[in-house]
Please model this.
Amino acid sequence: DAGVTQSPTHLIKTRGQHVTLRCSPISGHKSVSWYQQVLGQGPQFIFQYYEKEERGRGNFPDRFSARQFPNYSSELNVNALLLGDSALYLCASSLAGGGASGTDNEQFFGPGTRLTVL
Amino acid sequence: GQNIDQPTEMTATEGAIVQINCTYQTSGFNGLFWYQQHAGEAPTFLSYNVLDGLEEKGRFSSFLSRSKGYSYLLLKELQMKDSASYLCAVRDISGGYNKLIFGAGTRLAVHP
Model:
């Protein structure tokens, strides 16, 4: 079975541009979470989607938006790019998105998209 | 507030044992994960603790004390390939959904 896939692998943009990052979860997983990892730091939570609805949002500006499609894949959009948006963007999928403990909520990470803003 | 602390860097010798500590403060604790991350790659799952005590998995063990807000990852028989960043992450359920809150990571360098 394929794991979490993300595209593109690498991306170079200039300030002010817009970017769309894509993620396909593990087959059967209904929840997708997005994280931003700046060099030298741990990943920071951006969004979580479950069954096509936003479950939660981290402390990111409105320039960041996301959506989940009927096939559970997801897109992360960032508008008006800033230099500080340069980071590794990680997508993680899990079976469920609710509050239960246990392995149903274990998150599996994709390889990430490396975004460079010049 | 939510805060996770772990040492920035550690060095160790091949074949030795190293312990990476993590302290946390969160409002909705629902388990603690350790991930390994090689440079430029995604985090990979190492261990999960939700109850107090020690979980052992091969060369890796992880310990949790919920009352102290403390965990450690123990790596035995270190190998050169263990040189990586180790991320402590708390699964937080505040807001009614699970999200991972990561520490900044501990960069481990294993020397011959």
